[in-house]
Amino acid sequence: MTRLATGAAAALALTASAAAAQTTLFFGEAGPNRGARAEAIQYFVDQVEERSEGDLAFDIQWGGALFKAGAARSGIADGVADAGTIIAVYFPQEMAGYGIADLPILNPDAWVGMKATDELMRTNEALQQNLAEQNLVYVGTFTTSAINIGCKGATIDGVEDIAGLKVRGVGAYGQAFADEGANLVSMSIYDAYQGLDTGLIDCSQGYSYVVPALQWQEVIDSYTILNWGQVGALGVFMNKGMFDSLDPAQQEALMEAGAAIPDELGRILSTENDEAVQMMRDQGIEVVEMPEEGREVLLEAGSTYVEDWVETAGASGLDGEALLEEYRGLIDKYTQVRDEQGYPWDR
């Protein structure tokens, strides 16, 4: 055999050996392969492969191919997928601790919220133990970003404008609007365009980047930035049995990649949200901000649902008050980091 042939054979053997050594994990995602969250998931899996130097790879099953959103917790815990996205609102009891990131508290900054949630989930032993008992390991977090509201034929300049409006709400944020006199209409965010267009609803709560994605700019004439809070209890979890079977370097690669999600998704959301708001202004849609006194009223209205969460957390064996205090402290911590250092992508 010639040297060239020998070299080629050796290279093929090394390639085959590397391929055989790679561990491929199945990732279940109920959403489609498009949008900000899909970009963040792809970033995460790419980071895992890069940080593990090719030892780990993911096969992402998009669009609920492995399980729908309402079956994600059991699907991952039972090993239908090795990892995947869990949305806490579908599992209010089992994922009560993680549900803290959905609460209507003062938490409007996507990056700050994700960093606070990520640190809480990584460092709080009670939350880690609660997940371990479900055969789950927390890996990284996402967010939908701040809750705002678009309206047709109405403008919400203050809380006094909420009463009587037919509103599609988002979780506790919608309930707080109902407490201020709104008439809640149960409707998917994907049906809000038609609801606004036909007058079935006057307003829909949502997120700035959703406006161009779902073409709401065609059917709204005002958009109010609430400066209130966000829905942030959705993220990457892993089957604990599978995670424990990996070697320490692989586990570290997974956790480092998960910790990198807030910076990347924060950058994506910041860009897309800013562009969406500017697009609305350019098209003549009235963009207003809820005044501080109005926001305080909304925070007070939302406090009922924060108290409900504390009770739910307690029923799950968690100290809800202590978790809430810790979480608010982390929001303050990362707000200060942002104010002093700026966002990571701008540094």
Considering the chains and any ligands shown, give keywords for the structure.
347 residues, 13 helices, 15% strand
3D architecture notes:
The chain has 347 residues and is of the alpha/beta class. It has helices at residues 3-21, 36-51, 72-77, 110-123, 125-132, 171-179, 192-198, 210-213, 240-245, 248-259, 261-282, 292-315, 320-341, and strands at residues 23-28, 56-61, 83-87, 136-142, 148-151, 166-168, 183-184, 203-206, 222-225, 234-239, 286-289. The chain has a 6-stranded mixed beta sheet, with helices on both faces. Strands 2-1-3-10-4 form a 5-stranded mixed beta sheet. Helix 6 links the parallel strand 6 and strand 7 (183-184). Helix 2 packs antiparallel against helix 10 and helix 6 packs across helix 12 (292-315). It starts with a helix and ends in a 6-residue tail after the last helix.
- Major sheet strand order: 7-6-8-5-9-11
**Average pLDDT number:** 93
The level of helicity is 40-55%
Summarize the helix and strand pattern as letters.
HEHEHEHHEEEHEHEHEEHHHEHH
Structure class: alpha/beta
The value of Rg in angstroms is: 22 Å
Taken as a percent bin, the fraction of beta residues is 5-15%
Low-confidence stretches: 1-20
Q: What characterizes the major β-sheet?
A: 6 strands, mixed
Shape: globular
Helix run count: 13
Termini separation comes to 56 Å
DSSP strand tally: 11
